[in-house]
Amino acid sequence: MGSKKTYAGAVTDTKQRVSETVRRRSPAVRWVTPLAAGVLVALATAVVSVFYPLPVVLGTQPVPLFLALGLGAALAVIALQTEPAARKPRLGMSRRELAGLLAWWAGVLLATGILWYGTYKAWSALTLFIAIGLIVKILQVASHFESRVGFRIWMPFVAIILAFVALVGFGLVWGRTNLPPPIVAALDAYGPVEPSLTPPTRSAPDLSSINAQLQQSGDIDLGGMKTTKFTYVFHGSGVDVYLADIGFPAPRGSFGAENPPGWWGEVDGTSLRAGPKGTNFLVVAWDTTVADRFAAALTQELSS
Where in the chain is the domain with CATH 3.40.1000? Predict the structure, then answer.
């Protein structure tokens, strides 16, 4: 019995020493590890995006995606370094511990806001509602700074108002766009200033059936998508056709199309047209009827 008590006491002393070591860990070490994790995750995502259009598939701008994932990784490491008892507010918590917890939740809100800002697909609404819930959580944590202040029923309503004001203001100030980067790049390339092209890696579709003549071709990085651009002369004007390995993202405000199936849209007087799944083309033209003719010819050419 004596040896068992001695062993149990030794184990307890060891756990206490380990816990004390964690608490006394150098502040530099406690901050370097999350920082390194965040940088590594952001860089890894950026490297993957070079070979695969991950931001386009997820429907986000590249830089906000890298920042949000990097910040999220750093916050996850900080949470793992923190003792379980200090991860949620409780009675008897020091102001320093509460401030650290409040700062952590504010970081989560910042990462969510960055992701919301960079998202152009419909699921950005999900990040908006998550941000509202996080503001409610921050108010709940802040209410523990003074014991006389509790979680009031009006706080969620104030949080919702503040969330909408902050997020809408953030979007207005920084000019948030709802257009996918490949669409923005295609519209810019359709202007008077032609982008530089590299030798094409895809053969040009034969559109002689609609009397379209190939003018130029070449590869171009279109907002994170590796594409090949073909410019055709049709009725004296140019029409751009892009081919890629995946389908082009549809901008908000676009509509479903038939004959051939796909989507179409108009942005600032320029018509956009994509074809059925698997064809992976985008037509940029000055008129919707012209874009439809090119889409029909491309679908027949690429499906044969």
Answer: 181-303
